[in-house]
């Protein structure tokens, strides 16, 4: 039948009507079942005849019978293999049909085009609709061409499937015909044509994973192709979807060139038929970027024109020599493309004839990569769909050169395999021709299985003998005495009305009260002895054997717990599945995927519609870190519901019907992940013009800053140069105040180290306008002076109760401390342990906040470094109650999350699990964020309990971050590890308002920092009691 002469109304209706591929797949299942029964029968028959031959079958007649039985066993085995071949060919036929229907125009679209044409013609009274009529006719011609290509592909694929089928031979019927089976086998052997390579289905192929005949290359579906990844016949090139093409990436027939959509075009990026040139949209054009038919020239719009038009024809194009609509680039002829020579729609790249592709020369749909003729693939030259890898004719594979479906590995012609060159199904290993097996070169089924099971076996044991049991039980005692206390029965009135001869006579009488005196009964003695000898004879009898199963996880693969048998390692869910650590309903391949029909790594599917690639969340996506539906490329998202088609390709776009790089309102000019704002370079920034990570504000350079114009990390304020500053215009680390130059200063306009006050120059001064070391007071010049306006040298320490050198303040131990109760060097705050802390009760370096354990924290109650938020465990967090790094939101567990209550990385939404997620409530298990949490309010993280909200692992209470902390006060959590109490940071502390390691507070708040201290207002190491 010549499909080219049939209009799309007929071709589309034929492919979309009827039962579809269901009956063929049902037939494949039936053939598979028959194959299994034949293999089982052959095994049973062989076992019986082998036993007879070695026992009762002796002599010449028995030898003849043995030969016949062996021939019959061989026929059963060959028939089983034939049934397996028929099942595989039926599956291939179903795949060919689904592939053809995927590219066929839906009948509704054809009907809508014809209805539009009728409307336009009917209202074309003055010729005003001529351009629109021409466009509608051009679209109709494209539909015609697309349907013809689909039907030709289907015909070629179905023909190759039919050609691969061979008739089933019958076994011999008489003993005299024993030579016939040998002759038949010789005939079959002579009819076999050899392929060169692995996992080719057909004959005369040179390469690997070809389905068809006489292909030279990899992963072709069809016959006579020279190249790789072609769907069709007689193509020279790669990634073509059609027949008789010369060149790569053509969608159609008889094209010479690359990326042409239609038939019989010569050139690059043409959409239509019989075009010669580049980027022509229409029919019979010669030149560049013409829109219409029968044009000769450049940039012409219309029909039959000769000459030069505009630089672009069509509508809304930006660039040079584009035809079509809303394209950006050069020589694009479709709609909404970004790049060079794309003839399809919404593509980003070069020479894509399909739709919504990111890459080069893709003729299919929603691919990320090169030369994919199939759909939803991440990789190169895939003729199947939803593969992660290259040269796969099958579907949902992770790897390369797989003819079958749902494989993880390479060169598998069966289904659900994990490994290499497996011809059977559900195998883990390599070169396995059987099914449900583990290992290498296994031919049978269920071979080399390692189940996770354990049972206790009690062997058979006899029991016999005699048993004498002497029983001697003396029993003495008494019952009583029993005393009944005195009790009184109150009076009971008895009133009655008696009729005698009709006359009523009332009767009134009170009964009682009655008093019973106390009564005591003497004890009753009990005294007897049970003295008896019991004699029993036991046996003889036998018990057992007994097997007590404790647990069992049988099946192929290793440590899988799927409902249906799976290959691979540690997979769970319904299955069948291949790969590693996959879970959820349905079938998958790859690593750590969740949901049905995913391939690749860490993808989450919805509604049974999977993804290929890496860390995608949604449906029908390829590439990396995309969120939505029908998206290719890297880090794209949509503003639609995940169930709605977005048609987005490229890099870092947000919206609908987009191609290119960084397009869409919320992503304009941001470079990085999870940014909210404009022109940020980095990740998890909230604001504009930030360079770094987790900044909250604008124009910051560094990470974890809150404010404007900071250079460094962990600053709270504006125009600070350094890290851990709390204030404005500071130069240096750990200053608490404004306009300080140095480190660890508490106050304003100080120059130096560890000063507490304003306008001091030097080290460890407490007061105002001092110049020198460790002065206490104001306007002093010198060292260790106490008072005001003095010049010279005083004591080694000023202030009260200091131990060390050059300390001012009270109760300090160390050097250059100017606060109260600090231990270390240059602390200007109170009760600090460390160096340069301007805040209070910190353990570490240059902390300007309160009760921090770490370095450069301007916030409070943090365990880590450079946190400007509060109660964080980690570093560079500008939000609160986070466990991780670079989080600008709150209550996150992970990395660079700008939203709230997320578990994962680079999440700008809220209450989500995963990576690179833009929306809310994404990737959840059982509808709650995190994993295995039991809190009242939503937390992030793992195994948290209590009222929530929290982040981290194993915390109890409210407001904790970190690991295994217990909050004793509602809403006053801790950061760090194994802390019990409230408002703490560090490790193994007990109490309230404590930083450091292993400290215990005796009152609330305790104000303790350091290591292993017990008491209140303490810093340092191993102190007890009460400090200053």
Q: In the CATH hierarchy, what is the class of one domain?
A: Mainly Alpha
Spatial extent as radius of gyration = 42 Å
The end-to-end distance, rounded to whole angstroms, is 101 Å
Mean pLDDT: 85
CATH-level-2 architecture of one domain = Up-down Bundle
Helix/strand-derived category reads alpha/beta
> Beta-sheet strand percentage?
25-35%
Please count the beta strands (DSSP E, at least 2 residues each): 78
Q: What is the makeup of the main sheet?
A: 13 strands, parallel
Protein name: PPE family protein PPE6
Family: Belongs to the mycobacterial PPE family.
Please tell me about this protein's structure.
With 1028 residues, this protein is of the alpha/beta class. Among the domains are: 4-121 and 130-169, PPE superfamily (Ferritin); 458-549, no CATH class. Helices cover 14% and strands 28% of the residues. It is built from six helices and 78 strands. A 13-stranded parallel beta sheet has the order 13-14-15-16-17-18-19-20-21-22-23-24-25, with no helix packed on it. It has a twelve-stranded parallel beta sheet with strand order 59-60-61-62-63-64-65-66-67-68-69-70, with no helix packed on it. A hairpin with a 2-residue loop joins strand 30 and strand 31. It is globular. Belongs to the mycobacterial PPE family. Residues 2-166 form the PPE domain.
